[in-house]
Amino acid sequence: MTFLSCLTDDTDLVLDSSVIINLLATGHATPILRALAVPIAVTGNVLREIERGAANGRPEFELLTAMVNDGVLRVEELEGQALETLFDLVSGTIAESLDDGEAATLAFAHGGGFRAAIDEKKATRLAAARFESLKLVTTIDILAHESVRTSLGDKLLANATFQALRLARMQVREHQLEWVAELIGPENVAACTSLRRLAKRRSATTDL
């Protein structure tokens, strides 16, 4: 497994909605986050975004609230410059703006000098363009962290990763594919539409 997690220090980690949903889908969100042994935050904007999903019968808000109550992560509200940054990020054209939760995650992380955990490609692109110093990680970076792998063990981690792919449609970047495929096994790769497409695209590029 050649992929190495980008999580290499004890900087606070700010989680976006997509990452939270992925981790909850693993069925092991609390032990995964506790294994990181870093302070973890979620913005009030993300909390409210996930709460709105509860109206459609989704379970994430209740599970997230339980983790907040258990001290696994803390809720932070934006103010001052971070709030101004949020307003800037949600303004503009569709191609150059973000939704409220993504914008709040990036604004709070940038303002505090923290890392942002976010999976969406547009948010990653805009963050790279606007915040040169902001360090980003993905859900896969969290799952591939050495302490998470040690805490869960390969078998449980493989099942957790497969559940996030299957239930939450977790995004995987091309440079992460080899690690994911080896972890969950070829039969499970074939069961994940997104991974099949990524593998096919990667193969086509290699053959050129």
Would you give an account of this structure?
The chain has 208 residues and is α/β, with parallel strands linked by helices. It has two domains: 13-140, 5'-nuclease (Rossmann fold, 3-Layer(aba) Sandwich), CATH 3.40.50; 152-207, no CATH class. 61% of the residues lie in helices and 8% in strands. It contains 13 helices and five strands. The protein has helices spanning 17-26, 29-36, 44-54, 60-69, 80-90, 100-112, 121-130, 139-143, 146-152, 154-167, 177-184, 186-190, 193-207, and strands at residues 13-15, 40-43, 74-76, 115-117, 135-137. A five-stranded parallel sheet has the order 3-2-1-4-5. Strand 4 (115-117), helix 7 and strand 5 (135-137) form a beta-alpha-beta unit. Helix 3 (44-54) packs across helix 4. The longest helix is centred in the last third of the chain and has 15 residues, at 193-207. It is globular and about 50 Å long. The model has no long low-confidence stretch (mean pLDDT 91).
Helical fraction: 55-70%
The overall strand count is 5
CATH homology group of the largest domain: 5'-nuclease
- Strand arrangement across the biggest beta sheet: 3-2-1-4-5
Straight-line distance between termini:
25 Å
Radius of gyration: 17 Å
Question: How does the SSE layout of this entry go?
Answer:
Layout: E1 13-15, H1 17-26, H2 29-36, E2 40-43, H3 44-54, H4 60-69, E3 74-76, H5 80-90, H6 100-112, E4 115-117, H7 121-130, E5 135-137, H8 139-143, H9 146-152, H10 154-167, H11 177-184, H12 186-190, H13 193-207
Parallel strand pairs: 1-2, 1-4, 2-3, 4-5
Helix pairs in contact: 1-10, 2-9, 3-4, 3-6, 5-6, 9-10
